[in-house]
Amino acid sequence: MGNPIIHFEVAGTNGPELEYFYSGLFEWEIDHQGEGDMQYGFVANGSAGPVGGGIRHEPGGEAEVVFYVEVDDLSEAMERAQALGGTVRIEPIDTGDITFGMIRDPQGNSIGLIQRPEDAPSENGLAPDESSS
Hints:
Number of helices: 3
CATH topology of the largest domain: 2,3-Dihydroxybiphenyl 1,2-Dioxygenase, domain 1
Mean pLDDT: 86
Number of strands: 8
Low-confidence stretches: 124-133
Distance between the termini: 19 Å
Number of domains: 2
CATH architecture of the largest domain: Roll
CATH superfamily of the largest domain: 2,3-Dihydroxybiphenyl 1,2-Dioxygenase, domain 1
Order of helices and strands: EHEEEEHEEEH
Helix content: 10-25%
CATH class of the largest domain: Alpha Beta
Strand order of the largest sheet: 2-3-4-1-5-8-7-6
Radius of gyration: 16 Å
């Protein structure tokens, strides 16, 4: 199996407006957090299907939809993307729970890449050494 899509984001200059729109249109449960330029609406697990997501407030940015793909080695994936004609948009950032970065494909579309710690649960909730049992 290829690398799974594990997260999506819808971004725009007015995050609360987008939260209102998507929760009203698709009945997504959205947990609004933060204030000012640091706002984010987490789409509740299962509310939008099997893939989690969020509404990103980008007051000085652009509207976009980004999907995030889980990779085993973030640095290697970013290097491979560049070798294939892509560019790095956001260098790796370690949040403590995950490490993520963002690339642009050769046409300029943004794609997020996420690397989980080796001991993090997999999508089925099992630690990596438990999933082979």
